[in-house]
Amino acid sequence: MSSDCYIVSPVKTCSPLTVTVPGSKSITNRALLLAALSDGECSLKNALFSSDSRALIAALQDLGIRCSADEATKEITITGCGGTLPKREATVYAASAGTAARFLTALLAFCDGTYILDASEQMKKRPMAPLIDALRSIGISVTALEQEGHLPLRIEGGGQNLPTTPELSVSIDKSSQFLSALMMTGVLLTEGLTVTATGSRTAMSYVHITERMMKEFGITPVLSSKNGTGTTYRIPGGVSYKRRTYDIEPDLSGACYFYAAAALLGTAVTVSGVHKDSMQGDLRFILALEQLGCTVTDTPEGICVTGPANGHYPGLDITMSDFSDQTMTMAVLALFADSPTHIRGIGHIRAQECDRMTATITEITRLGGNAKVDEDGTGIIITPTPLHGARIETYDDHRMAMSFSLVGLKVDGVVIDNPSCCKKTFENYFELFSHYFS
């Protein structure tokens, strides 16, 4: 791998293998926030160290939270602030981390002080308006310093002038992180918070991670209604999270690339520590692999996926709104299926690290493939055709790089541009990829 590209070598045969992936980004960043708001010291085990998690650690330190990290042991020790930030004025930087940006916005809004929240140029393009509008609706002062609805922001936080028990709504059509951010930080308000998720999107897998982790840190959000007008949570106030140690699950999103390789190569792949009781929504991708004819077995070591013995599998008509991070992975598998694939319910991925719908179609076309947006504009239809090598643009998007690397296992001449973008969540991905598939 050079500094600017990775040349993928096709694999004709592949023996069964066992892979170890880093800790979950989603769980690590939630655990960082919950530990920072806790009462006492908390040790996070098997934490992910990547540009996203480092950005949140640095931001918490800039707010006066004591964090010490040992990357060798994958452990982070945090001394929680008990709900009161040590610094009432600070400028913090979210880099390109969407989770950090959304979580910090809500945190700063509910703490007394005046704060500037800045971010990378990539993150400045990503949507923040639903969260900003929700906070403004209950009297929090949030000022966009450049483009309205986007970072950077000046936040004048605090709960003194808010309604006794604030009630607000937030659309999750563009990201469920908005809801998760409000749920986790609502405990900072004296009387808590009532928050309703609105919009047409019903995918809640990441919110369920938030709900479960809040319980594991000692505070239970109450699901007070779930109907046609939205899902409402009542968050208790004036309480602190409590947890002394917390074990972070392996990252299922990262595991899925290796499981997809099992389907492509007709081999068996086990990922250490991944089991069917995982709280992560990308578990559904593994279940989708069963529809392709893969065998999925939960072993003591971890889930083992064995690809179809005959090397053939059908295309799927599948809704992926609740595990949309694997859209590009499924799109790559679709290139080698025996029939067309229709991936539905993924319109929101246009506003992620890049416009992932357009990027996926563009790179499939670059490979000689056939892909198009479906009639309602929220899905992709892929029809298998003969492919050829190409240099894949990754749009500084880690998931584009990792998913399209799989094409090169079957097609000669595939080159991945800017592989270092994987440092966002899985910085040694291509080292592992080379180790297992060389």
Give a structural overview.
The chain is an alpha/beta fold. It has 13 helices and 23 strands. The strands form six sheets. It has a four-stranded mixed sheet with strand order 2-15-17-16, with helices on one face. Strand 20 and strand 21 form a beta hairpin. The longest helix has 14 residues. The model has no long low-confidence stretch (mean pLDDT 95).
Q: Can I get a quick summary?
A:
The model has no long low-confidence stretch (mean pLDDT 95). The longest helix is centred in the middle third of the chain and has 14 residues. The strands form six sheets. The protein has a four-stranded mixed beta sheet, with helices on one face. It has a four-stranded mixed beta sheet with strand order 4-5-3-14, covered by helices on one side.
Which helices and strands appear, and what pairs or packs with what?
Blueprint lengths: L4 E3 L9 E3 L5 H12 L4 E5 L5 H12 L3 E5 L4 E5 L9 E5 L4 H12 L3 E6 L2 H4 L4 H9 L3 E4 L8 E5 L9 E5 L5 H9 L7 E6 L6 H12 L5 E6 L2 E6 L9 E3 L4 H14 L2 E4 L11 H9 L3 E4 L4 E4 L10 E3 L7 H8 L6 E4 L11 H11 L3 E4 L6 E4 L6 E3 L5 H8 L8 E4 L11 H8 L2
Parallel strand pairs: 2-15, 3-14, 6-7, 10-11, 18-19, 22-23
Antiparallel strand pairs: 1-23, 3-5, 4-5, 7-9, 8-9, 11-13, 12-13, 15-17, 16-17, 19-21, 20-21
Helix pairs in contact: 1-2, 1-7, 2-3, 3-6, 6-7, 8-9
